[in-house]
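Make up an example, fold above all:
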Amino acid sequence: MDYRGWYERDSKEKPFNTIVDIILVSAMGPPGGGRANVTQRLQRHFNLIAYTDMSTDAIGVIFNTIVSAYFRSFSNDIKESVERLV
């Protein structure tokens, strides 16, 4: 990733494979139990997001707020159905 590609080591000619327009998504758990630490050199390529487990009520409040804000310009019939939708 640092050099926009890598060399193909299995080939005799060792051509350079260029990385173009790629989106890389990954997930990880905490180190331990056979999982290794992820180095800072690799982590710098990612946006790290962490969260704690939330209760069902907290998730409901979050989604209710988002959906209510989206439907604020709709008719009252739609606005009243937000609670059932969430």
Q: What stands out?
A: The mean pLDDT is 85. The longest strand covers residues 5-7. The radius of gyration is 23 Å. The beta strands are 5-7, 16-18.
